[in-house]
Design a protein that fits this description.
Length: 401
C-alpha cells in the first residue's frame, strides 16, 4: 500500500508549503480500503460528485432566479426558454437532485444492512444522518422555490403542520416560510436565501461526514469492527476500477434521464403558476419526498405527522444503542435481514400512498408508518436480543490468506 515514489527525491517548492499531493496520496489514492471493496462502497464519492454538480448549477440558476411572488415562476420559464443553455443547466440541477437522493437512500439502506452504524462508527453514522436531514430540508425548500401550484400546496401544508406544534410551531413556520401572520403565501426571498446558506453549510457537513467515515473503522460487507492488516489493500489500483465503473454507470443513468425524460423529475402541477385560489387536491411531490410525506399524513393529524418524521430520524440516530446483536451484518442475521426487507416494503407503500392518499391507501399509510416506527423501536431490539446469529469470521471472506 506504499505509493511507488522515490523517498529521497526532494519535494517541490509548492509541496513543501502546501502538501496537497501528499495528502491526496495518503488519504485518497493509496488510502487503505477493505479487500471486499465493492460498487456499493463507491456511493460516498458519487454523492460528492452530485453535490458538486448541484452547487455549480445552483449558483448558475441563482444568477437568473427572481425570488418574488409572481416573478419566480416566470424567471424559471425565462431560464428554460430564453437563457442560452438554460434548459440544460436546469435539467442538470433537478435530475442531479434525484440522483443525489437515490444515492443517499442507497447508502442509508446499505448501512442498515451491513451494520455500519455501530462498533466505533456511531459518530460517522449520526453525522451522516444530519447530512441526510439537510438533504431533505433543502429538497423541500428547492421544491417550494419553483412557485408552481404543487409548490404552494406543499408550503401551505408544511406551514399547517409546523404551526400545529405547540408553543414554538408558529414561530418556526414564520422563520422558514415567511413573515405573514396567516402564512398564506411563502416568502420566496427568505426561502431562497435559506436554500443558498444551508446549501453551503451542507458542504461543510458533507466534509465532516467524509472525515468521520475516514477516521472510523473501515466499512466492510462482513460488518467486522476491526480488520486484519492482511485484509486491507490500497485504493489504487484495487478499488479505483470499481469507482470508475460506478461513476460511468451513474453518469449514464444521469444523462439518460436528462435525454429521455427531461421533465420526468418535475411535478406536472408545477407547470401551473402558484395561486392560493386554485390548489391541487393532493400533493404532487417528487419521489424522494413521498416517504416522509406519507409519515406526515399518518393519523390524519396536523403536527403529529411532523413529529413522526422527527421520531424516525431520532430512532435512526439511536440505532447503534438499539441494536445489540453480536453480529452486525445482515448476512449473518436471517431474521434481521427479513425485517429490513419488510422495512423497505413499508417505505415503498408509504411513498405510493402519499402520492394519492385516497380510499384504502389512507389505512395503508397508517399501517406502514406504524411498522416503520415499530421496526426501530421494537423489532430491532427484540431481534438483536432473541436471534442467534450465524458464526462471524474473524477475517473478511474471500480475502488473501
Amino acid at each position: 500500500m506504499t505509493p511507488p515514489s522515490d523517498p529521497s527525491a526532494p519535494p517541490s517548492w509548492l509541496e513543501q508549503r502546501l502538501p496537497i499531493g501528499r495528502m491526496l496520496r495518503d488519504h485518497l489514492i493509496f488510502a487503505p480500503i477493505p479487500a471486499d471493496f465493492s460498487l456499493g462502497a463507491c456511493v460516498e464519492p458519487l454523492i460528492w460528485g452530485a453535490l458538486i454538480t448541484l452547487t455549480f448549477t445552483g449558483i448558475w440558476l441563482g444568477l437568473f432566479y427572481h425570488a418574488a411572488p409572481q416573478h419566480a415562476f416566470t424567471s424559471l420559464q425565462t431560464i428554460m426558454r430564453a437563457v442560452p443553455f438554460g434548459w440544460l443547466i436546469r435539467d442538470l440541477h433537478r435530475t442531479g437532485v434525484s440522483i443525489l437522493f437515490a444515492l443517499a437512500y442507497l447508502q442509508l439502506f446499505r448501512a442498515l444492512r451491513l451494520g455500519l452504524y455501530r462498533d466505533g462508527r456511531e459518530l460517522a453514522w449520526i453525522v451522516s444522518l444530519v447530512r441526510f436531514a439537510m438533504f431533505l430540508f433543502l429538497g423541500v425548500l428547492g421544491f417550494i422555490m419553483i412557485d408552481g401550484a404543487a409548490s404552494i400546496a406543499l408550503s401551505l401544508d408544511l406551514a399547517a403542520h409546523l404551526a400545529a406544534i405547540p408553543l414554538i410551531g408558529h414561530a418556526i413556520a414564520q422563520a422558514f416560510l415567511g413573515a405573514a401572520s396567516d402564512l398564506s403565501r411563502p416568502d420566496l426571498t427568505r426561502i431562497a436565501m435559506a436554500h443558498i446558506a444551508i446549501g453551503f453549510l451542507l458542504l461543510l457537513i458533507a466534509g465532516l461526514t467524509s472525515l468521520t467515515q475516514r477516521l472510523a473503522p473501515p466499512a466492510n460487507r462482513d460488518g467486522l469492527p476491526r480488520l486484519d492488516p492482511r485484509d486491507l489493500v490500497a485504493f489504487h489500483p484495487y478499488g479505483s476500477p470499481r469507482l470508475f465503473a460506478a461513476a460511468i454507470i451513474t453518469g449514464l443513468i444521469f444523462f439518460g434521464l436528462i435525454l429521455a425524460a427531461p421533465h420526468g423529475q418535475s411535478s406536472r402541477l408545477n407547470a401551473i403558476p402558484a395561486g392560493t385560489l386554485a390548489l391541487p387536491l393532493h400533493l404532487d411531490l417528487p419521489w424522494y419526498l413521498l416517504g416522509f410525506a406519507g409519515l406526515a399524513q399518518a393519523g390524519q393529524s396536523l403536527g403529529g405527522g411532523t413529529a413522526l418524521i422527527a421520531v424516525v430520524l431520532i430512532l435512526l440516530a439511536a440505532l447503534p444503542w438499539l441494536d445489540r446483536s453480536p453480529a452486525a451484518a445482515a448476512r449473518y442475521r436471517p431474521w434481521h435481514r427479513r425485517a429490513l426487507w419488510l422495512l423497505a416494503g413499508a417505505w415503498v407503500l408509504l411513498s405510493i400512498g402519499a402520492a394519492d392518499p385516497r380510499g384504502a391507501w389512507t389505512l395503508m399509510i397508517d399501517l406502514s408508518a406504524c411498522y416503520v416506527i415499530a421496526h426501530f423501536l421494537l423489532v430491532t431490539p427484540l431481534i438483536s436480543l432473541l436471534e442467534a446469529p450465524q458464526p462471524v469470521p474473524t477475517r473478511l471472506r474471500g480475502a488473501k490468506k
